[in-house]
Amino acid sequence: MKRRATAEPADRAAAILQGFDVAGFRCRLVDWFRHQQRDLPWRRDRDPYKIWVSEVMLQQTRVETALPYFLRFVERFPTVEALAAAEEADVLKLWEGLGYYSRARNLLRGARQVMEEFGGVLPDDPEELARIKGIGPYTAGAILSIAYGRPVPAVDGNVLRVLSRLLLVEEDVQKPGTRRLFTQLAAALVCPDDPSAFNQGLMELGALVCTPRAPKCLLCPVREDCRAYAAGRERELPAKGKRKAIPTVDMVAAVVWRGAAVYVYRRPEGGLLGGLWAFPDGERRADEAWEAAAARILRERYGLAVAVSGPLLDVVHTFSHCRWNLRVFQCAWVAGDGAAPDGRWVEVDKLDELAFPASHKKIVAALDGETVSARRGALR
DNA sequence: CAACCGTGGCT
DNA sequence: TAGCCAAGGTT
């Protein structure tokens, strides 16, 4: 049998936990969580569906941001069955502004999958859960432990931070290999008596006390367990590699007027902002004039001949992995019905029925302003 | 494995 | 200001 140069995660986890007071740590954490947890709507009951929705919304998203979306979503779609019967357009409209829109599409697909394959009930089996679109290792662990009381780990960013400090683990937490180590550690630590309180306690501690920049160690219920605190090194952890610089792209978009209607298209699934509506847009070429770029893109990509009348606004929008310098032009329609696969002429007052990304939502808002000022002008 | 996929708030 | 950060998943 061949032996690896580096220890397996399971062996390393066991070595790291040598001398750690597992039982005492569990008690202190769970006790703290029971008394100090925030009153959040998804903690009101253990409905697996609501836990699922909340966990998906909370992926890479702050509690305060997700909260109003969650309330609207479960009000409109209270059950898996209700969601499974929904139109994707309605789901995306409820998700508008929350970002990472594949989450919404996957949640809808997942709900339909649960109706067809699992009789409308989210399975409590790890391997079956993992087959559902949009449910990865963390979300599966969260649903299993919180909704079904199963003693499995749920490793999110909070848990990586808390455990890296607690156990003084110095590996780069962004590497997939390190993630496996922390999953082993969390699996060994999880409290069999109350996996829900333990896993949520770990995350709540990370959110409220063991925060990224200025951890509140003096308020920490498990300070006596913390190796980083003992070493005075809590601010050095977790270790993370540097982020790559993100590229900037010059973009043009156009508001093409044809009577009271403007042209919009639905972005293809799978790409950036997939499934959302947008004004016709495209990349400006190097050394190309902005207005010329607008005319060229409308002609080539959207089959529209227009007269570019002037800039409406500039939008600078930063995504997670790229940045747009977006210049928006108003245009008068000349010819062409529009050739985008999912293009439509929509009256301006009906634009609110469609889901737009934040960057193009600003264009819609600018048009509302235009309408208002035009009406004001007409009244004078 | 590394790149892709949003958004808003904070320092 | 520019960068960092937040209950990740998919390809």
From TrEMBL:
Pfam families: HHH, HhH-GPD, NUDIX_4. The keyword DNA repair applies. Keywords: 4Fe-4S, DNA damage, DNA repair, Glycosidase, Hydrolase, Iron, Iron-sulfur, Metal-binding. One of its GO terms (molecular function) is oxidized purine DNA binding. Gene3D superfamilies: Helix-hairpin-Helix base-excision DNA repair enzymes (C-terminal), Hypothetical protein, domain 2, Nucleoside Triphosphate Pyrophosphohydrolase. InterPro entries: A/G_AdeGlyc_MutY, DNA_glycosylase, Endonuclease3_FeS-loop_motif, HhH-GPD_domain, HhH_base_excis_C, HhH_motif, MIG/MutY, MutY_C. GO terms for biological process: base-excision repair; mismatch repair. Its cofactor is [4Fe-4S] cluster. Residues 57-208 form the HhH-GPD domain. It comes from the Bacteria. Its EC number is 3.2.2.31. It catalyses: Hydrolyzes free adenine bases from 7,8-dihydro-8-oxoguanine:adenine mismatched double-stranded DNA, leaving an apurinic site. The keyword Cell cycle does not apply. Binds 1 [4Fe-4S] cluster. Belongs to the Nth/MutY family. This is Adenine DNA glycosylase. It comes from Calditerricola satsumensis. The gene is mutY.
